[in-house]
Write a structure and sequence with these properties.
single chain, 6-stranded antiparallel sheet
Length: 139
């Protein structure tokens, strides 16, 4: 019975330690900044269904720009369909370490809120690496 208590305590200490390490890593190795979205390359995976003359339905996968379908605006607002895809968000920012003007990319998937919500001109909070100002991550 005491092994269960020790195991539970060890797991708790491990989880707290990983969380603390992540917070310390962000604080020590990255500086916060604000980036502006220049443009977004958003790709969606669609399923196109067609009905043959004999009444059978066939489906085929199609990967294309999310804007190539008339339903994208509805999907963005209601999120009533599951969308798989990816978005490469190109951002520009001033690196807080040296004041240089930089550009970089952030990656999002259909699971991220930013995939649906971001548009050109929006501001995004980022973390800029202390060692390489070109390396960023989402804050």
């Amino acid at each position: 019975m005491s092994y269960g208590v020790y195991g539970s305590a060890a797991a708790t200490v491990f989880v707290v330690g990983v969380g603390a390490y992540s917070a310390i890593d962000r604080g020590a190795n990255f500086k916060p900044a604000t980036a502006s979205v220049a443009y977004i390359d958003r790709t969606c995976n669609f399923v196109e269904t067609t009905t043959n003359q004999d009444g059978r339905k066939t489906a085929r996968g199609l990967t294309d720009s999310c804007n190539s379908t008339g339903e994208w605006e509805k999907v963005r607002e209601k999120r009533n369909k599951k969308i798989s895809g990816s978005a490469t968000v190109h951002v520009t920012y001033t690196a807080p370490q040296d004041g240089s003007y930089r550009s970089s990319e952030l990656q999002f998937t259909g699971r991220d809120d930013e995939f649906y919500e971001l548009k050109a001109g929006d501001e995004v909070r980022i973390l800029v690496s202390n060692t390489d100002p070109a390396k960023i991550r989402k804050a």
